[in-house]
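Progress report, Aim 2. The chain analyzed during this reporting quarter is listed below.
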Amino acid sequence: MKGFFLHSRNLLKTVGRRLGAAMSLLGVVLLAPLAWASDDSGACNEALFPNVICSGNPACSGNPVCSGNPACSGASNVNRGFYGGFLVGGGVSTNDPIVQTGTAFVPTPPPLPVWATGEAANRAGVMAGIHLGYEWSGRRIGCDPRWAILPALEFEGYYLGTQQVGALNNFDSTNRIPEHLFDYRAPLNIGVLMPNFLMTLHTPFGIHPYVGFGVGTAIVSNAGATSLQLAPPEPGINHFNSNPSVTDWAPAATCRAGLRFDLGNSWYLFTEYKFLAIGATDYTFGPTVYPTHSPTTAWSVHYGTMFEHLGVLGLGCRF
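Predicted structure tokens for the chain:
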């Protein structure tokens, strides 16, 4: 449990450093229309806001053109309430190094220790999932009720398929092997369960920008991993052959920024950039078992933090 909280703290620190500048820039972009829309220094201007409901709005007190306007019927209920949607997307990973450790019981003592490390290559991935949430009425901005900040809580679950690939170099402290290289490849099936908090800027134009963040869990499954020795060459020998498929889980965090496009009163399209960080994970693969290969211990593999940059497209509906 102590390790889980340590991984979580380190993960959140890393996410904070990487996203601070980006979210600050996004905040400036969102604040510009907010500053304009929130200017309620005078009564409502019918030329600026032809479709408004000012009943009960202190900024509109005493303005006869703002009260009882039939064109404004229903305009005050801009929040979605309960909603759900489907999402698909893809992206690329930028992951921390991979470490593979174990011991080979070679014919000439002592046993050969392996501590092979290498950078993880950037790999493409695909994702698909669903989300369910509730959006509150939030806070109106200025006189026009179609300008509003709407908070929402959302739960999303999605599948992410990608790979961990790296060239791992074992620095042999015994100096018996001049070069000891492994080609590491592991197809990954990742399940992400993520509660999110979102803030949406509702506008009169049917296009609504939003930002959000969440902290949840990722289940990372290696499906048929291989570790092939390139130097000295051992053709056809997968060092994980006795058990190449193992699973671990880790804390995960996400930040999101996107746009929602209204398709009538109930349906909407959305597109977003999603940054996903998955904490460090550890795996124990099976030992190398071949008649022609020296026996080994089980292999331990460590993944550093995995960072996924995802583009998402989805369709949603308010209930």
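The chain has one domain: 77-318. Residues 1-5, 19-75 have pLDDT under 50 and may be disordered. These observations will guide the mutagenesis work planned for the next reporting period.
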